[in-house]
């Protein structure tokens, strides 16, 4: 496309591309904007050096290769802040510049936003299901080595408390946490058989009584008894990774209390998702360790966002394909809420026009400047600020928006100002 546009002169026409989702993943009631910070960082580094040019020069003409060698995005980007909620049709990102410089960003933008938004949305559902109890992201072994780091970041954005991925700790400042594995307990086996107590003694000696001991390598009841015998009643926690977690949590809580370990926490893990977390809400669980489900989006590994051309030289353009239609024109959006803070609807209207009348409701503009003249605007939110924004947004949803059952989007999107 770039080569053809450069050849016919259309590459330099001023355009607007828009990233949006036509629909939410099946059964979801809201989406979460994730990865914006990562996308802006990637945009600053998006260049064609000698190794990249060596690849594209095999199939592109010399003029296009030369153009790529000098590529720098020089346009503008507005969009929803990271951590903001979105709904079908929300103009999550508006990218403006020449056709050539904007069209090259499609994969860069979508690969990051689709991944991180999917993980953040799944993680947010788990946070809601946990109802204030702690969550540790433990899914690195179930993800690509690079996406695992992004998953940790997205889960923390959504409200998870910590991650076992130390690269996410280093790169993004996500709090780190974890427990030992079965292999450490199994290691303490000799000719006389397993020695679970020796394993526990070694861990406590190295890490102190505040550590969390994994008690289900052999027999859980015996494991708990041994753990308290070794560490004493001030043991920080025990982890259960198998069996009927609800039944075992109750039995272990009773056993710990009988042993005087009333402050010892119970951590559960083992193929948890938002549904099993919700099912454990009535049980004495203090912390959930979640792996596979969070790093795979709990059944929705992509947010389903698309990146479409919506305006050329001020003229709205749109697709009319069946089930894949788009709405033309550069857009703005605002969210209307009652005085209580509960969201009523999202309103999308043409950029440059007056804001629609909020009709007595509180109006919140949704799109903020992110890039001007190819340079990231100062003052972009930190990961912590984005995390706080999402927490506030979840509280503002109508009550049905937090239900885990299938249903329509929690908030309708209304388009004004242009006829289809």
Q: Would you give an account of this structure?
A:
This protein has 420 residues and is α/β, with parallel strands linked by helices. It is 35% helix and 21% strand. The strands form 5 sheets. A 7-stranded antiparallel beta sheet has the order 15-14-1-5-3-19-20. Strands 7-6-13-12-11-10 form a 6-stranded parallel beta sheet. Strand 12, helix 13 and strand 13 (287-290) form a beta-alpha-beta unit. Helix 6 (106-130) crosses helix 7 and helix 10 crosses helix 11 (220-231). The longest helix is centred in the first third of the chain and has 25 residues, at 106-130. It holds the Pfam family NAPRTase_N. Residues 1-114 form the Nicotinate phosphoribosyltransferase N-terminal domain. It catalyses: 5-phospho-alpha-D-ribose 1-diphosphate + nicotinate + ATP + H2O = nicotinate beta-D-ribonucleotide + ADP + phosphate + diphosphate. Belongs to the NAPRTase family.
Q: Give me the CATH superfamily of the largest domain.
A: nicotinate phosphoribosyltransferase
Q: What structural class do you assign from the helix and strand content?
A: alpha/beta
CATH second-level architecture of the largest domain:
Alpha-Beta Barrel
Number of helices: 15
Order of strands, main sheet, comes to 15-14-1-5-3-19-20
CA distance, first residue to last residue:
27 Å
Summarize the SSE layout with pairings.
Elements: H1 2-8, E1 14-21, E2 31-32, H2 36-45, H3 50-56, H4 62-69, E3 76-80, E4 85-86, E5 93-98, H5 99-103, H6 106-130, E6 134-137, H7 147-158, E7 162-163, H8 166-172, H9 182-187, E8 189-190, E9 193-194, H10 196-207, E10 212-214, H11 220-231, E11 237-240, H12 245-258, E12 265-269, H13 274-279, E13 287-290, H14 292-295, E14 305-312, E15 315-316, E16 331-337, E17 343-350, E18 362-365, E19 367-372, E20 375-376, H15 383-396, E21 413-415
Parallel strand pairs: 6-7, 6-13, 10-11, 11-12, 12-13, 17-21
Antiparallel strand pairs: 1-5, 1-14, 2-4, 3-5, 3-19, 8-9, 14-15, 16-17, 16-18, 19-20
Helix pairs in contact: 2-6, 6-7, 7-15, 10-11, 11-12
């Amino acid at each position: 496309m770039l080569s053809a546009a450069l050849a016919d002169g259309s590459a330099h026409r001023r355009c607007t591309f828009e990233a949006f989702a036509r629909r939410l993943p099946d059964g979801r009631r809201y989406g979460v904007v994730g990865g914006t910070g990562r996308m802006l960082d990637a945009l600053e580094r998006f260049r064609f050096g000698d190794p990249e040019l060596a690849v594209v020069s095999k199939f592109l003409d010399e003029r296009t290769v030369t153009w790529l060698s000098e590529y720098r995005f020089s346009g503008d980007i507005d969009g929803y802040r990271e951590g903001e909620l979105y709904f079908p049709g929300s103009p999550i990102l508006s990218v403006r510049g020449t056709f050539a410089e904007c069209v090259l960003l499609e994969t860069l933008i979508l690969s990051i936003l689709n991944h991180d938004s999917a993980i953040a949305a799944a993680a947010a559902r788990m946070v809601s299901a946990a109802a204030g109890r702690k969550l540790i992201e433990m899914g690195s072994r179930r993800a690509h080595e690079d996406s695992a780091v992004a998953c940790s970041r997205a889960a923390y954005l959504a409200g998870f408390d910590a991650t076992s991925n130390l690269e996410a700790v280093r790169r993004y400042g996500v709090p780190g946490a974890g427990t030992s594995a079965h292999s450490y307990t199994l290691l303490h086996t000799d000719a006389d058989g397993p020695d679970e107590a020796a394993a526990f003694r070694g861990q406590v000696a190295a890490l102190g009584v505040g550590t969390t001991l994994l008690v289900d390598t052999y027999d859980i009841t015996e494991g708990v008894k041994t753990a308290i015998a070794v560490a004493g009643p001030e043991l920080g926690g025990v982890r259960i990774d198998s069996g009927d977690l609800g039944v075992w949590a109750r039995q272990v809580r009773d056993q710990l209390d009988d042993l005087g370990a009333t402050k010892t926490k119970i951590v559960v893990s083992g193929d948890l998702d938002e549904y099993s977390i919700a099912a454990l809400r009535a049980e004495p669980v203090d912390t959930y360790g979640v792996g596979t489900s969070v790093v795979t989006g709990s059944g929705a590994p992509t947010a389903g966002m698309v990146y479409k051309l919506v305006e050329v030289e001020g003229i709205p353009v749109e697709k009319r394909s069946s089930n894949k239609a788009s709405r033309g024109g550069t857009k703005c959006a605002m969210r209307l809420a009652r005085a209580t803070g509960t969201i009523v609807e999202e309103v999308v209207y043409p950029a440059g026009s007056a804001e629609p009348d909020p009709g007595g409701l509180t109006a919140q503009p949704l799109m903020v400047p992110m890039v001007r003249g190819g340079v990231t605007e100062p003052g972009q939110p930190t990961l912590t600020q984005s995390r706080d924004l999402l927490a506030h947004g979840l509280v503002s949803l109508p009550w049905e928006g937090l239900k885990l059952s299938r249903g329509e989007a929690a908030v309708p999107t209304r388009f004004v100002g242009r006829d289809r």
